[in-house]
Structures are given as C-alpha cells and as structure tokens.
Amino acid sequence: MNRHELVEMLRPGSRHPGARRLRQVGYVVVAAAIVDAAAATMVTGQRFAGLVAVPAAAIWCFFLVEWVLRLGLAPEIAPATTPWAARRAYALSPAGIIDALCALGPLAIVAARSAPVMSALLLFSSLKVLRSIPGVHLIARVFRNERRTLLSVVTLFALVLMISAECEYLLESRAQPAAFGSLPAALWWGVVTLTTTGYGDAIPITFPGRVVAGLVMVCGIAVLALFAGILASGFAAEIRRRDFLAAWDMVARIPFLRDLGAATIAEVARLLRPQEVSAGSVVMRRGQPGDCMFFIVSGRLEVQVEPPVTLGNGDFVGEMALITGEPRTATVTARQDSELLALDLADFRDLAGRHPELANAIEMEAAKRGGSRKLTSGPPK
Ligand code: CMP
Question: What architecture is domain 147-238?
C-alpha cells in the first residue's frame, strides 16, 4: 500500500475500498472495546490481565497507530496553509480529541488496572464511530435548521411544566407534603409526567389534582408528538436536499449530462438515484425485464457480449430494454467498485418526452450497440 492510498483510506467520507474496509475494522474494534468494557466490570484478580487487560492493550494499540497516522498525514488528508496548521486543526477537532484520548489516555490506566476506569475508557472509544456515521452531521444540521421551531416547542413544554407544577403544588402540597411540598418537588412530578415516563413515585391523590394530572398527560403527548414531527419532517427535508446535492455532483461529472444546462441538470438530478456496486457484482442479467438504466459516474462495468465491452466514467448502460420494451440483451457486471446513477423507466419516459435531444442521443448510442427500434413513446407506464 502506498502513501496516497493510505491518505485516501483515512480521508473522512472517502469512498475508497480501503477506507470502507478500515471503517469496518474500526467498527469491529469498537465492538470489541464495548465487550471488553463489560468484561472489565465482571472479571477480577488474575483473570483480569488475561481476559481484559490484554485485549484492551491490543485495542488501544490499534487506536494509537490510527491516531499517529491521522496526525502525521493530516497535511495530506485535509490540507491547510502549513503542515503544522493541518495537524493542529486535526488535533483540536472533536474527532481528533476523541482519537487522542482513545490513543493516549489508557496508557496510565493500564498501569493502574482500575476496572471501573478501564471500562469507562473502553466505552468512551465507542464515540469514535460517530465520525463514520453520516447521520450525525445530519442530526446537527436538522437541529440547526429547525432551531426556531424547536425552541418554540421547548418554550411551550417549559410553560406547561411550570403551570402544571404550580397547580399540583397548590392542590397537593397539604395532602402530600413529602411528594408535592415544594415547587421543585412538583416540577419533578411534572417532568416525569409530561415526558410520559411515569415513575409513579409521586401521584396526585386529590380530585382536582388528578384532573390537572390528566390534562398534563394529554398535553405531554401532544408536545412530544409536535417535537417528533418537527424533527421527522426536518430530517426528510435534509435527506432530500443531501441526495439532490449528491446527485447533482454526480450528474455534473457525466459529460453526456453535463452539457444539458443548469435547469435540466437540476431536473435530472432529482430523478437519478445514486447506487454503489462492488467489483464482481452483477448489475443486470440477460433476459430479465429492464426497469431502469444506469449512468456510470466512476468505476468500470463489463457488458458480456462477444467480444466483451468495457464501459467507464460517463457511459450509460441498460438503455436498450427501456427503449425497446424487450428483456435485457446482455449481462453486465462490475469490474471495479463503481458509482452509478439509476434512472427508472417511468422517469426515463417522462424525461425523454420533455427533452427529445436527450432521448435521441441515447437512442443513437443504443442503435450503435445493436438495438434498432425507436423509443416506445407514450405516457409513463
Ligand atoms: P439492455 O439490453 O437494457 O441491458 C444490457 C445492456 O448492455 C444493454 O441494454 C446495453 O446498454 C448494453 N449493451 C448491450 N450490447 C452492447 C454492446 N454491443 N456494446 C455496449 N453495450 C452493450
């Protein structure tokens, strides 16, 4: 493995096969750390070293090597004005701090062999997976986008909480001084009830107290539903936006589609579904019905005709079945890990109707490849 490949493997969000493998190994190591954290709280004495400390040392060695590599290669992974600026930026980033604590913190603990601290440190390493979960950035972005609406709901929640706690304090404090004798005690009841947790440690017993409690329970469900609804719609909007940007980026890399103009690219980007195929997998089989075609963003596909034809970046495949309505004329396999953009039959027909120049170009290529029939016109089926 050369230096360039190593940098690609360590680059956040890299689609390099090595980066994917490294992420998978990282997950396995973190899973082992979690199991070891549990074992550290169960095993004592002589067996501690063999069963817990030795795997922990191996896990931390892995983290140490990874941290040293990330720090050393930071200028190439995320270039900055100077190499040291890049290293400092990585070392002080949240991911860099977590990596450093995972790599260096345990050194002192191994010597001390403190089971609770070791267990906590091993569990802490599970934070490392945050880097490779794309959803984490999404969550942060959704909270940022929806902050005003969420703040309104939180304010509403606080208002209902304060009013309900004050009511219960007034109604229940004489009957139950232990549970409702002060506003903070009533607030505890309010939080437990509004969040629908219901520990049952404080229960109103007077009739008016129970009426208020009933209303608070209904309000609690409504406020939580509102909160969940805002987050869910925020997520859906953010995912749509992210997929659109990813598709746009890919469409712009295909010469055939790049020349369409911004408005059409945006339209096409909305219709295309990014898809990844690994080397050796079958993309389509001869004789099967065709329900979509693919544009190749990166990688290499092989059409199994005589002699075999290799298609690469910017080419498309699977158009013949959409044009003729007949089964696939050949089996197509991925020769490398490839990024594709899928266009479904209905969208293809729709697009062809609105952009005849696009349909003509695809038809001409299909004719060259062996399909002589024209696009079956008409509305999407
Ligand atoms: P389709 O018939 O839908 O599915 C198999 C695909 O392989 C076909 O569309 C074409 O995109 C592609 N294909 C078939 N024959 C050739 C060829 N001779 N050269 C390049 N591509 C081909």
Answer: Orthogonal Bundle (1.10)
Shortest-distance Cα residue to atom 20 of ligand 1: 369
Closest by CA position to 90, among listed 103, 108, 109: 103
Give me 278's structure tokens: 């690994």
Q: Cα separation of 57 and 43, whole Å?
A: 16
In sequence order, the β-bridge partners of residue 343 are 293
CA angle 139, 142, 147 (to 5 degrees): 125
Distance CA 122, CA 71 (A): 21
- Cα-based torsion angle of the residue sequence 318, 322, 324, 328 in order, rounded to the nearest 10 degrees: 40
Q: Is 303 in the pocket of ligand 1 (CB under 6 A)?
A: yes
Residue nearest to atom 9 of ligand 1 (CA): 318
Kindly report whether the global pTM for this prediction surpasses the value 0.85: no
| The two structure tokens encoding residue 142 | 């959704």
Of 30, 50, 28, 26, give the one whose Cα is nearest residue 40. Answer: 50
Task: Quick: pLDDT tens for 43-87.
Answer: 777 776 677 888 888 998 999 999 999 999 999 999 999 999 999
**Which position has the token pair 């089989």?**
285
How far apart, in whole angstroms, are the C-alpha atoms of residue 294 and residue 288?
A: 15
Cα-based distances in Å from 200 to 161, 184, 197, 267: 17, 17, 9, 55
262-368 carries CATH number 2.60.120.10? yes
